[in-house]
Amino acid sequence: MATGTIRYWAAAKAAAGTGEEPYDAATLADALVQASGRPGRAGDFARVLARSSFLIDGAPVGTRPHDAVDLPDGAVVEVLPPFAGG
């Protein structure tokens, strides 16, 4: 298991109800399941996660399965929902 921080941006921050929180998980999938199970997180949070991109210490996860993405101790997971703009 690794401990670290999940940072939420834009719509992810609104759905999570916080800008960041700790995790204690071995993989990205584990960390997201843990985050989804926190009190007060309903369908909006799951919908935002499903559309989001993820960075681990600044490196994009891309299309890798989240259960195959190991989290190093002290890592920062960035949750980036789609952004509007031009």
UniProtKB/TrEMBL annotation:
InterPro entries tied to this protein: Beta-grasp_dom_sf (IPR012675), Mopterin_synth/thiamin_S_b (IPR016155), ThiS/MoaD-like (IPR003749)
Q: Which domain of life is it from?
A: Bacteria
User: Where, by residue number, does the polypeptide cross the bilayer?
Assistant: none
Protein's UniProt name: MoaD/ThiS family protein
Q: Which organism is it from?
A: Actinomadura parmotrematis
Tell me the organism's taxonomic lineage: Bacteria, Bacillati, Actinomycetota, Actinomycetes, Streptosporangiales
